[in-house]
Amino acid sequence: MDKFQRTLTLNKSILLGLSSMIGAGLFFNISPTSKIASYSSILGLLLAGTVAFANASSSAQLARLFPETGGTYLYAKNVLGKYPSLIAGYSFAIGKLISCTAVALTLGNYLYPENPKVVSIIFIIFVTLINYFGISKTVNIARWFVYTIVLILIFYIISVTSSSNFSFDIPIGKGFSFKNLILSASIWFFAFTGYSRLATFGEEVDSPEKIIPKAILVGLGITLFLYVSTSFVTLGIVNPSIIENSLTPLKVAFDLSRFSEFSYLIIIASTVATGSVLLALLPGISRVLVAMARDKKIPSLFMTIHPKQNSAYVADIFVGFIVVVGILNFDVLSAVKLSAIFILIYYSITNLCVIRLEKSKRIFPIYISAYGLLLCIILGIFLVIYF
């Protein structure tokens, strides 16, 4: 059986995690959540962040015990059995394929709003070609993507907060209700799901039982800070009613800021961010397909690994093709909602795996995973009811 080489260090793993999380959610989700919950969408973001941390703690514990390729598909197979693992594997693959569609469409909306789907498809083909050359090449490119995104976001925050029309005193309780809180959190949750990508690369991480838990939690902490600060300052300069139907909300806010002549930078940032997510997300899906093929749940062709490039190139090409089909059939918001439903199922199983572990094998209190499981179920139910 073909095996991957262990080439991912701690720094590379953190960068891979960041490149998986700082993406479409940051540049789009403030619009639909503002339409649902107005200024209180920030509270939904914070709630989604707590759920993400609970889920991440579960992923970190399981990655420490099962440091191989496959993520929750592998964990469920070892802890819960055959059928939960199949549900986890298919939920991840379907959810993330739809997620790729949302990410690619967000890129197209910022880069070429007149015909976003064409741009999205071209970029998916480009990323698939890059992934053919293996995860080490992908991480090296993702490193510069992450640096670029962070620098532009810092400039964005400075430009907005130094504007005469900006205010820190936003009515954060406006639009609040339990229903609005849960619905906005369920959409914001989509933005944090990238941390699971590291777990799917377990076979390629050096000392995965040590590195993956650290990389997941550090990457998620940095991402949450960037999401909250960016979203807060955005609502400090634009009324939610202005951006609630916008496909490019940060561009709208930048155009009203002090250095509006540089608003094109947010288009660059969104392009780089969504590209960075796709660089990590597409091979993450293929790794789950590799694990399922090894267990003979899907054709064995999907577990083929290139002997020179260290890439799951057959699975990578298949994933790229399915995402192109998704781009042709979805809009961004529908893709975000549907993806979130499947990923919430996936993380429910992740948390359940930890709850079923023996106490001696857990490194965090069981109530953290129980909280993650409960909130995943609640968010999923609300999404299904109000989809």
Structure commentary:
This protein is an all-alpha fold and 387 residues long. It has a single domain (10-386), classed as Amino acid/polyamine transporter I. The protein has helices at residues 10-21, 24-28, 30-37, 41-65, 72-79, 82-111, 116-131, 135-161, 178-189, 196-200, 208-235, 240-243, 249-255, 264-294, 313-329, 332-356, 366-386. Helix 1 crosses helix 14, helix 6 (82-111) packs antiparallel against helix 16 (332-356) and helix 9 (178-189) crosses helix 17 (366-386). The mean pLDDT is 88.
Search tags:
17 helices; 0% strand; mainly alpha; Amino acid/polyamine transporter I; 73% helix; 387 residues
The poorly predicted ranges are none
Instruction: Count the beta strands.
Output: 0
The CATH homologous superfamily is named: Amino acid/polyamine transporter I
Overall, the morphology is globular
Topology pattern, helix = H, strand = E: HHHHHHHHHHHHHHHHH
Q: Give the helix tally.
A: 17
Highest-level CATH class:
Mainly Alpha
* Portion in beta strands: under 5%
Overall mean pLDDT stands at 88
Count of structural domains? 1
